[in-house]
Specification:
Pseudouridine synthase; two-stranded antiparallel ribbon; alpha+beta
């Protein structure tokens, strides 16, 4: 008879700057006699070993009752520990997410360039999720989908945990109509509008996604030209699938890589705080029927693409004005 998985108790620690505490369950088959011995072995040989030793010594590792666990405390199989990781300082991104819509179930934010949607890698507290949780006092806020750190525009969040699945299914079932805008070179002789289909594969640890020639397509994008001037095109991009970097890959395959792209056609390595030339890609609109309230929604970003509104400033590397 299969045993039911143990439901973890509620976290005894509050969020810190919008970040949940780490939860660690003590395995049933550990040979260690004390909490300290287990944690030392668990983190041995990793960059987390020294920080964990400091947290334990400072009483910042707690059990379900919220009381600190000490190194000499007896090992209790199956119980949980919580702690907040030591995080390296992050430079504040000078651009903030704007809340366009909020009700009891749904929040729609207008994300700036350079701000990650969710914590990942070196971007943790400086993310849209952490900042909105902290600023709006919404600890249960969670993303319904993600937008690349370098892409600006609309991102949806569920306010309540019980609604998250319904909003995520909208994207999984392709029930959200998404439109993007981009600025890229004008390609002479390229017939638009057109639908681009290809197979895109993304290898873990490799920055760029790649198209697989001749393979069954798994990515589809509609490309339209809205206007052009001075050798540049202002494009509307409508993705019908959601592969990693899909629009950037498809524009590059047409010979029109999006301006400011540090990956396509060639991988560059700009500093994380280099705000001079934002990627000229904007998630302009989202349209869908709310699965919780039944309301028909259409949201539009209030942001603009700098290379189209003032190309000389963008080309000169003059970063956008910081938000007030």
């Amino acid at each position: 008879m299969r045993r039911r998985a143990q439901t973890p108790p509620a976290a005894p620690l509050p969020q810190l700057d919008g970040i949940d505490p780490v939860r660690l369950r003590l395995p049933a088959d550990s040979p260690h006699a004390t909490v300290g011995a287990f944690l030392e072995a668990h983190y041995a040989g990793t960059s987390g070993a020294a920080p964990m030793a400091r947290l334990l010594a400072a009483g910042r590792v707690v059990g379900a009752d919220g009381r600190p666990r000490r190194a000499q405390d007896p090992y209790a199989p199956g119980t949980f520990l919580w702690f907040h990781r030591e995080l390296p300082p992050e430079s504040p991104v000078p651009y903030a997410p704007r809340v366009l819509y909020r009700d009891a179930h749904l929040l729609v934010a207008d994300k700036p360039h350079f701000l990650a949607t969710t914590p990942r890698g070196s971007h943790v507290t400086q993310t849209a999720l952490a900042l909105l949780r902290h600023r709006l006092e919404l600890p249960a806020l969670s993303p319904a989908h993600r937008l690349d750190r370098l892409t600006a525009g609309l991102v949806m969040f569920s306010v309540r945990p019980e609604d998250r699945g319904a909003y995520q299914l909208l994207f999984q079932n392709r029930l959200v109509h998404k439109e993007y805008e981009a600025v890229a070179p004008l390609v002479p002789g390229l017939t638009l509008p057109r639908t681009v289909r290809s197979r895109i594969e993304k290898t873990r640890g490799v920055m760029a996604a790649a198209e697989v020639p001749g393979a069954e397509p798994n990515a589809e994008s509609r490309i339209e030209l809205l206007a052009h001037r001075g050798g540049l095109g202002h494009y509307r991009l409508t993705p019908h699938t959601g592969r990693t970097h899909q629009l950037r890959v498809h524009m590059n395959s047409l010979g029109a890589p999006i301006l400011g792209d540090p990956v396509y056609p060639e991988v560059a390595d700009p500093a994380p705080d280099d705000y001079r030339r934002p990627l000229q890609l904007l998630a302009r609109s989202l349209s869908f029927t709310d699965p919780v309230t039944g309301l028909a929604h259409r949201f539009e970003s209030t942001r603009a693409l700098g290379a189209w509104t003032d190309y000389d400033a963008w080309a000169a590397g003059i970063p956008p004005e910081p938000d007030a």
